[in-house]
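pls read this protein:
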Amino acid sequence: MTDFPVIALRSVEISTPDLAGSVDFYTRVWGLEVAAEVGDKVFLAATGDDFHVLELKAGNKPELRKTTFRVRARADLDSLLLKCREAGCTVMREIGPADAPSGGERFVVREPQGAVLEFVHGDRRKEAKIVANQVLRLAHVNINSAEIEALSSFYQTVLGFKLTDRSKMMAFLRCNDDHHAVVLAEAPVNGLNHIAFLMPDLESVMRGAGRVVDHGTSIGWGVGRHGPGDNVFAYFVDPTGVVIEYTAEVLQVDDDYRVKGPDEWVWPPGRTDHWGIAPPKTEACKKAQLSVGFAGN
């Protein structure tokens, strides 16, 4: 089995022009809970063992500020930082104590296409609970890239991810048994496409989606089942314009999994998901998927 230096997608940080409103949405509607508040930043937790999965920071507009990955061992921080330097990343913070209340050691870089990446080890964990209809952890982050093959190569050769599938528009990359932790989408601009939150099961995706709809936010795409990864999905646009997804039943893979290419991931005309029942993605959702950039770019 592949020995990954990066073992999990832990959390993402986004900026919001309405911090109080975003906290209200992600707690009262989306189903997270406040884990800590530090200055103008709020840390939100799911029911799994991560101290937090989402960081909200006050800002002028919605942006992806940071994606945080957990590494296998302390020594991996040193080796990954060296590889990032050699690959042309900008080092924003050297290895040292993490800034978040979850603690641990970390380093932070900006990869060549502009996204800020943090790598942590020894961060604080909590007892995991599986709660029906509530988010367990992050499932994946989907990043827009104008040079998808170069970014895919970076994740594989520098960070040690493996390619699991390549559709016409997307590359799916894993760092553990989940089919993907990072998805790269071909796009005219670099930025955030969406953030996916893992629910315990299909029923939780359905009931969670119903809760969000009941609170006045319509489904942007779904409910359906993806091809690569075979996961169930329901997409929404949060009140500030960030696309978020409930998902479940992500395919588990090992080194025997055969990578499939674009010619094998083709739907019949008019179909947008494996089941063939998901309506077309809304124009608002499609626009939002191209509207959130990287902080500092």
Summary: The chain has two domains: 6-121, 137-261+275-289. DSSP finds five helices and 17 strands in the chain.
